[in-house]
Amino acid sequence: MTARAQRRMLNEVKKTPRVSARDLKKSLAHANISVDESTIRKTLNKNGVHGRTPRRKQLLSRKNIAARLKFAKEHLDVLAKYSVDR
């Protein structure tokens, strides 16, 4: 794999972090670059990009938001105690 192909692939991964190795292979094929999926994964790993699906942030329900707010309000005195001691 050429350096230009690597840069192209890394730029595409930066734009869309959820892209799969199969999709990267297809996009490189449009540029007449023939690379195997395992080579793509190895190249990304060498460049510090591990795995192709980042974790999604958990969505909070209204019930959980209310419970967190209640907990925070109940423990304001604990926070104030620590901030005064320091």
UniProtKB/TrEMBL annotation:
Residues 6-77 form the Transposase Tc1-like domain. One of its GO terms (biological process) is DNA integration. It holds the Pfam family HTH_Tnp_Tc3_2. GO terms for molecular function: DNA binding. It comes from the Eukaryota. It comes from Pogonophryne albipinna. This is Transposase Tc1-like domain-containing protein.
